[in-house]
Amino acid sequence: MKLALRSALFLAVIAACGGASGGASQPSVPALVPSSSATVAPSASASAAVAPVELKPLLATNMRGDLEALGLDMAHLPPLSKLEPRVLRKLMPLFTKSLGVNCKGCHADDIRAPTPRKKIAEKMWNEFVVKLRTADEAPLFCDSCHQGRVHQLDRSDHEVLSRWMDVTFNKGLSRRDGKENTCATCHGEPRDEHFLARWTGEADH
Ligand code: HEC
Ligand code: HEC
Ligand code: HEC
User: Fold this and answer.
1) How many Å apart are CA 130 and CA 105, to the nearest integer?
2) Which site among 121, 151, 159, 205 is 20 to 30 Å from 54 CA-CA?
3) pLDDT tens-place string over residues 81-136
4) What CA–CA distance (Å, rounded) separates 121 from 127?
5) How far is CA 83 from CA 5, 18, 68, in A?
6) pLDDT tens for each residue of 146-174
7) How far apart (Å, rounded) are the C-alpha atoms in residues 163 and 171?
8) Is 92 near ligand 2, meaning CB less than 6 Å away?
């Protein structure tokens, strides 16, 4: 387990240097990186080097019907690790559709092996989908923010992105615990602008 994770992180570094974007493009060091593993490497920290994507407004989820059909109560979602295996497996096609990736976008050949993308996906469920909703109290799911793309942030202009964050992720969202939603909800205090890198190392709690 430990070794697999370490080599996955190593691949992440290689992919970051090669500027792999969402698993769609080949890294520039194909001799070192088998393409099946390269797709599981997160490139969040290197996205400045990746072709910019369009910043879009947030949506209420379009998948509420699918989620409720699995017996999920959107107002009281459990952490991912507490879902029945049957429900967890049926969520997978909704993950792939929301992010515009296939199963290999997150999983290594061994489905159970940890990967950085699986860890981030679990935290996105536990921290965003479970704990947040839109400002007008509609439920969120992966599609709300991702809208068919793994990468959704145009990081080329820090000021533009900060303003978009304020409108979209700060004012556009509310917390289910009733506390005020601020930048610190996600970025912590003091503000960590690259917290996804940390998420790859601590999925369970
Ligand atoms: C509140 C908005 C929001 C929600 C809801 C959300 N995400 Fe994300 N997610 C983001 C942002 C922002 C990023 C960083 C994207 C970027 O770098 O362009 C991200 C990045 C990721 C990444 C890392 C991609 C990479 O390799 O850099 C994964 C995997 C991911 N999300 C999975 C999910 C899954 C699965 C769900 C649903 C359980 C989900 N997300 C829900 C906002 C969201
Ligand atoms: C956005 C990332 C993501 C994508 C895409 C994704 N998965 Fe998953 N998958 C996860 C996470 C996170 C878990 C739960 C954590 C774990 O099992 O370690 C999981 C768990 C599973 C499990 C349960 C494994 C177990 O230990 O019981 C199966 C089976 C699975 N996925 C299959 C698939 C299939 C098939 C696809 C394509 C249709 C897919 N996944 C796409 C992230 C993803
Ligand atoms: C709902 C969660 C959420 C909230 C609230 C939020 N952000 Fe973010 N923000 C993210 C995610 C996810 C990323 C990608 C982090 C990463 O790559 O590690 C991000 C990235 C950023 C970045 C890009 C950093 C870079 O250089 O790539 C900036 C700037 C930023 N946020 C500013 C803000 C500001 C300012 C606020 C408050 C007005 C805010 N954010 C509120 C989720 C959020």
Assistant:
1) 22
2) 121
3) 999 999 999 999 999 999 999 999 999 999 999 999 999 999 999 999 999 999 99
4) 10
5) 23, 36, 14
6) 999 999 999 999 999 999 999 999 999 99
7) 11
8) yes
Q: Which two tokens stand for residue 94?
A: 């909704």
User: Closest ligand to 134 CA?
Assistant: 1
The token pair at 13 is 């570094």
The amino acid that residue 16 corresponds to is A
Residue type, 83: L
* Cβ neighbours, 10 Å, residue 127: 15
CA-119 nearest atom, ligand 2: 12
- How far is 13 from 29, CA to CA, in rounded Å? 11
**Residue 34 corresponds to which tokens in the numbers above?**
């088998």
Ligand that lies nearest to the alpha carbon of residue 156, given by its number in the listed order: 3
